[in-house]
Each structure stands twice: as structure tokens, then as C-alpha cells.
């Protein structure tokens, strides 16, 4: 690796205007770089330390999180530590107590660490090295999952979060730069990096997209990656336009807003196009911490349209929607701890813990046969779309039984489960959104195992 400064601005990184981005930070704000040790974050580390946009001493530090998902991850952490020592960059380190079970839980742990690092160091800006190829992969991944306009916007170049009562900006200055350009920068300036061998294994949807789907698209339609990045930019602009347009709509339909409840004029809401109405409902529910999907939003919209006065419905996150004559009232019913779904990334042995409505649910899984019982699912893994997710049930969830498809809510009512019991009931779904299993209630038809085929089992418990 090289400790020397680059000779001058790098032509292939000209889209990165770090001067403009970082100038928006207050003069005394500290900048925290998320540093994995890969080529992308190492290029950004070198630029911030030695390039034209280099920050003054004391304003810049790095943070490295060891997920402990690979046997050699500690060696990566030690290597990053050595680079930061040599380049005189302060480093904040963290490590998972229990290795995450998949991409989703790893991302949650990593961001918990980064936000805590920002809080403890007083950093006002977190910089990540997401690049154009990451953006294209994200957009394509969301397309195949059936995303809407907001999902097409992909990774946001900048957003603001609150950490310990302070506002912290998260910026991604490399979203306009290709992966090849960053690696070329590292080679040109003799900057070494660490390779994560799991990125070369087609065991997750993101890796399949990165290794096979995007290269095939580029071969068939050269420039596909740049066009996907452009699509994200257009979708984000459209989302901003929607937000601006909805300000007047909200002013028209909202009659009362408080910390724990909001009141909307039902008829005024119904006068708008269904897409406008659903966007208003989704935005207002998010203000209470709920993140409704398409099915949940449509269920709330149907309630607004057709529910009789005095009726109500309950949403995940402890929210209740009620019709009170000509008003729709959304209120916080009670405190419900945040969920933490559990991801089963591939049909290999593993274990983990999900949290659903405050309930701790432990799970373990492995190839082959497991114990008999209502808390064990035996499947043919070739019939499933990994990763699997152990999560809370959602309005609109259905399961395919031997005699046809059925709503989970109807199954729960037939079993006599209360609303409280329904919210705490785990559901196993695959990457296609198909419900596979509700422990103790039902399992999907035609998911195996098939006699003579390699089986896979999952066991859940408190």
C-alpha cells in the first residue's frame, strides 16, 4: 500500500465533488468514514486523507465493524487497524457479539454501530463508499421484488437521522462512480484492499445479481448499469415532486395532529385519486413509526372507503385506525417494541433470534431431518427462494394450503387467537413473499420434503 498523496485529481473520479459535499458540513463537524477495508472504502479513505478534498486533522476518523461472519474477519480488522495507524487516521472499532445470520441482520448491526460511533465521537457526518454498481444492483434487486416508485429511487445520496438528540447526515459521494473506476484508482495509487470471498458465492440474491444478472444485462445492452443509476435518479426526483405536491393535500385532509394521534377528514380524503390517498395514508402512518407495505396500505385505504362508523382496525407497530362518523382517527394504541426479523440466508446450518412484538423467538436450522413436533418445519430447500425471513404477520398475508389459498387472518380467527396473540405470532416467508409456515398453525402445501431428496429443517422456540 502507498502512504504517499496522489499526484493530482484522478480523471476517472471526477464525478466525486467531495469539496461541495463536505463544505455543507459545519466548520467544526467531524466526519466518520465507514471503512470495511474493501477497494471502495479504501479508495475513499485515500481521497479523504491525501486528495484535493483532504480534511484537516481532527475532523476525520474511520469506523470498522467486524461482523464475525467469516473465520478471517478478525484479520481484516487487524489489517484496517494497521492502515489507519500508518495513515494517522483515528479508528473506532466494533464487533458483533453473535454473528448475524444474513445480509439484513448484518446491515442492522452495522448501522447500529455506525450511529453509536457518530454519537460517541461527536461526528455530524457519516460517509459511506456505496458506488454506481451498488446503486444498479439495489434498483434491479427491488425491481425483481416488485417495488414501487420509492423503491426504484434506490440508495439515497444523502439523508439525515437523529442520534442522541443531534442531527447526523449520511452521505454517499461515490454513487456516480463505477466500481472499476475505484479499483483503477487503488491500483494507480498503490492502495491495497481486502477481498471478501463471500462476495464471489452466488448464495444470496444480491450476489446472483452482481455476479450473473448485471453482467448478462451489460452484455445484451451495454450501458445497462448507468441506465439503472439514471432510473434511480429519475425516481428520486419523482418522489420529491410527490412530497411537494402532497403538502397541500395534507393541509386539506388533516384536521388534528398530536403526538399520539392524527385526525383526517374522511370525505376530503375520498375526494382524491386512490394513489394520492394511499400516499397520504402511508406517509402519516410512517410518522408514527409504522412502515406499511403495499398490502397494508391498500387495507387501510379499503377501511377508509368502506368501514362503518365505530369500526376500527389494528396495524403492526401498535397503531389503531378508527372511523368516527366523518373522521378517520389514527392513534397509538400502546407501546410495542421494535421488531427484528430473522433472516435465514441459505440452506446451510445456522441459528439466530427474532424479536416480534416484544417476543423473543429463537430458531435454528440445518440440512437433513430434525425433531418431530409443531415447532419444526421439514422442507425441500429446492422449492424455496432464499433468503427466508422469520417475521411478524402482515395484513394481506396468505398461505397456500392443500385445498387452496387462505388469509392468515382467517386462520387466526378460526383458531380463536386474540389480536395480541396474532401480533406475536411468527411467520416464515421466502424471498418471493410466499408464506411458508406459521408455527403451530399451518404450513404451505408443496414445499416438501420429497422422498429421496436432500431435506432441510427449521426449529423455532422461545
Q: Can you describe this structure?
A:
- The protein has 462 residues and is an alpha+beta fold.
- The chain folds into three domains: 220 residues, Rossmann fold, CATH 3.40.50.620; 75 residues, Uridine Diphospho-n-acetylenolpyruvylglucosamine Reductase, domain 3 (2-Layer Sandwich); 120 residues, no CATH class.
- The chain is 37% helix and 24% strand.
- The N terminus is likely disordered.
Topology:
Blueprint: H1 18-23, E1 30-34, H2 39-50, E2 60-66, H3 73-86, E3 91-95, H4 103-121, E4 123-127, H5 132-144, H6 149-152, E5 158-163, E6 166-171, H7 179-188, H8 205-220, H9 224-253, E7 254-257, E8 261-265, H10 266-270, H11 274-287, H12 294-306, E9 312-315, E10 319-324, E11 327-332, E12 342-344, E13 350-356, E14 359-367, E15 376-379, E16 388-392, E17 398-401, E18 404-407, H13 408-415, H14 419-423, E19 426-429, E20 435-438, E21 442-443, E22 456-461
Parallel strand pairs: 1-2, 1-4, 2-3, 4-6
Antiparallel strand pairs: 5-6, 7-8, 8-11, 9-10, 10-11, 12-16, 13-14, 14-22, 15-22, 16-19, 17-18, 19-20, 20-21
Helix pairs in contact: 2-7, 5-8, 5-9, 11-12
State the main characteristics:
Uridine Diphospho-n-acetylenolpyruvylglucosamine Reductase, domain 3; Rossmann fold; 37% helix; alpha+beta; 462 residues; globular; six-stranded mixed sheet; 14 helices; disordered N terminus
Q: Quick summary of this structure?
A:
With 462 residues, the chain is α+β, with helices and mostly antiparallel strands. Helix content is 37%, strand content 24%.
Instruction: Please state roughly what percent of the residues sit in beta strands, choosing from under 5%, 5-15%, 15-25%, 25-35%, 35-45% or over 45%.
Output: 15-25%
> How are the strands ordered across the major sheet?
3-2-1-4-6-5
Structural class: alpha+beta
According to CATH, the homologous superfamily of the largest domain is HUPs
Distance between the termini: 49 Å
Number of DSSP-assigned strands = 22
Which second-level CATH architecture of the largest domain applies? Answer: 3-Layer(aba) Sandwich
- Model regions low in confidence, pLDDT < 50 over at least 5 residues: 1-16
Mean pLDDT: 87
Helix content: 25-40%
- Dominant shape: globular
Count of spatially separate domains: 3
What's the helix count? 14
What is the CATH domain class of the largest domain?
Alpha Beta
Largest sheet: 6 strands, mixed
Give the CATH topology of the largest domain. Rossmann fold
Amino acid at each position: 500500500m502507498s502512504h504517499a498523496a496522489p499526484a493530482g485529481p484522478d480523471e476517472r473520479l471526477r464525478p466525486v465533488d467531495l469539496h461541495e459535499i463536505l463544505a455543507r458540513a459545519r466548520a467544526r463537524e467531524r466526519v466518520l468514514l465507514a471503512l470495511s477495508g474493501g477497494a471502495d472504502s479504501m479508495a475513499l479513505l485515500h481521497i479523504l486523507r491525501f486528495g484535493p478534498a483532504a480534511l484537516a486533522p481532527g475532523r476525520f476518523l474511520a469506523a470498522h465493524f467486524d461482523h464475525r461472519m467469516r473465520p478471517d474477519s478478525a484479520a481484516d480488522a487487524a489489517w484496517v487497524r494497521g492502515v489507519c495507524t500508518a495513515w494517522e487516521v483515528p479508528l473506532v472499532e466494533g464487533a458483533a457479539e453473535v454473528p448475524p445470520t444474513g445480509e439484513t441482520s448484518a446491515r442492522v448491526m452495522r448501522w447500529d454501530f455506525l450511529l453509536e460511533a457518530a454519537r460517541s465521537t461527536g461526528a455530524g457526518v457519516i460517509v459511506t463508499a456505496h458506488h454506481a454498481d451498488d446503486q444498479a444492483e439495489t434498483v434491479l434487486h427491488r425491481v425483481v421484488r416488485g417495488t414501487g416508485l420509492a423503491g426504484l429511487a434506490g440508495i439515497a445520496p444523502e439523508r439525515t437521522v437523529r442520534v442522541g438528540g443531534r442531527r447526523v447526515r449520511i452521505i454517499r459521494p461515490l454513487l456516480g462512480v463505477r466500481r472499476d473506476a475505484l479499483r483503477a484508482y487503488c491500483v494507480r495509487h498503490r492502495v491495497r484492499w481486502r477481498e471478501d470471498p463471500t462476495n464471489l458465492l452466488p448464495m444470496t440474491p444480491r450476489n446472483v445479481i452482481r455476479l450473473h444478472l448485471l453482467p448478462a444485462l451489460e452484455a445484451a445492452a451495454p450501458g445497462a448499469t448507468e441506465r439503472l443509476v439514471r432510473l434511480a435518479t429519475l425516481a428520486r426526483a419523482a418522489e420529491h415532486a410527490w412530497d411537494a405536491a402532497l403538502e397541500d393535500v395534507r393541509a386539506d385532509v388533516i384536521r388534528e395532529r398530536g403526538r399520539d394521534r392524527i385526525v383526517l377528514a374522511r370525505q376530503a380524503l375520498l375526494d382524491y385519486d386512490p394513489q394520492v390517498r394511499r400516499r397520504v395514508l402511508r406517509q402519516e402512518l410512517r410518522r408514527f413509526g409504522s412502515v406499511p407495505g403495499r398490502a397494508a396500505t391498500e387495507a387501510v385505504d379499503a377501511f377508509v372507503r368502506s368501514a362503518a362508523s365505530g369500526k376500527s382496525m389494528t396495524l403492526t407497530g401498535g397503531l389503531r385506525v378508527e372511523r368516527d362518523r366523518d373522521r378517520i382517527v389514527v392513534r397509538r394504541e400502546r407501546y410495542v417494541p421494535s421488531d427484528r426479523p430473522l433472516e435465514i440466508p441459505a440452506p446451510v446450518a445456522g441459528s439466530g433470534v427474532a424479536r416480534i412484538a416484544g417476543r423473543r423467538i429463537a430458531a435454528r436450522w440445518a440440512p437433513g431431518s430434525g425433531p418431530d413436533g409443531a415447532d419444526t418445519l421439514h422442507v425441500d430447500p429446492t422449492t424455496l427462494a432464499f433468503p427466508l425471513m422469520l417475521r411478524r404477520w402482515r395484513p394481506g398475508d396468505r398461505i397456500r394450503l392443500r385445498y387452496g389459498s387462505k388469509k392468515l387472518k382467517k386462520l387466526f380467527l378460526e383458531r380463536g387467537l386474540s389480536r395480541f396473540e396474532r401480533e406475536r405470532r411468527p411467520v416464515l416467508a421466502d424471498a418471493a413473499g410466499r408464506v411458508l409456515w406459521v408455527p403451530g398453525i399451518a404450513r404451505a402445501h408443496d414445499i416438501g420434503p420429497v422422498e429421496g431428496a436432500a431435506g432441510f429443517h427449521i426449529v423455532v422456540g422461545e
